[in-house]
């Protein structure tokens, strides 16, 4: 069987990149690009960014399994998911500025379709927690309109589809300890330390 493929040329990365870009441009032009994605390197590891026409819909850490995240987007949003970095240039630029210490908040259109109900109320409040500040899970529960829903705040933070941009890393336990984070404890510590500097 390997003899069948012996005469095939090796994969040319430049050609593959050009073909992917043409495919993405054609899909965008024809209105069939429902979810565009790309990956970017960051100080907290490789991030997957995904956007619909409405805005940024997903930010995922490598430990969240990018392939599984893309499969979920295909099931929940649309099967028309394509690597198309162009739609994510502004998000990539703003994340770079954030990690370089030049940006304290994000100004991006966001698509919150992956969150509903109380979880969406929590995410809406998270954007109000200022750079370098933290709030406890209990404080966030109160601000989101349900003071006794402390555990539900933890769940909302753990399932936040837009970490970093919607800053769930700024939510800590009442005793000041960090608590959990989708990007892992090292990432949460790094982000809070960076913002406190």
Question: Which properties best describe this structure?
Answer:
single chain, 197 residues, alpha/beta, four-stranded mixed sheet, two-stranded parallel ribbon, 6 strands, 39% helix
Topology:
Elements: H1 13-29, E1 35-40, E2 47-51, E3 56-61, H2 66-76, E4 81-83, H3 89-99, H4 117-126, E5 135-136, H5 137-143, H6 150-158, E6 171-172, H7 185-196
Helix pairs in contact: 4-6, 5-6
Describe this structure in words.
The protein is α/β, with parallel strands linked by helices. It is built from seven helices and six strands; from the N terminus they run H-E-E-E-H-E-H-H-E-H-H-E-H. The protein has helices at 13-29, 66-76, 89-99, 117-126, 137-143, 150-158, 185-196, and strands spanning 35-40, 47-51, 56-61, 81-83, 135-136, 171-172. A four-stranded mixed β-sheet has the order 3-2-1-4, covered by helices on one side. It has a two-stranded parallel ribbon with strand order 5-6. A hairpin with a 4-residue loop joins strand 2 (47-51) and strand 3 (56-61). It is elongated and about 65 Å long.
Helix content: 25-40%
Overall structural class, as computed from helix and strand content, comes to: alpha/beta
What Rg, in angstroms, do the CA atoms define? 19 Å
The SSE order reads HEEEHEHHEHHEH
Strand content: 5-15%
What count of helical segments does DSSP give? 7
Mean of residue pLDDT?
Answer: 90
Tell me the major beta sheet.
Answer: 4 strands, mixed
Oligomer: single chain
Poorly predicted spans: none
Number of strands: 6
**Backbone shape:** elongated
Report how far the terminal alpha carbons are from each other: 59 Å
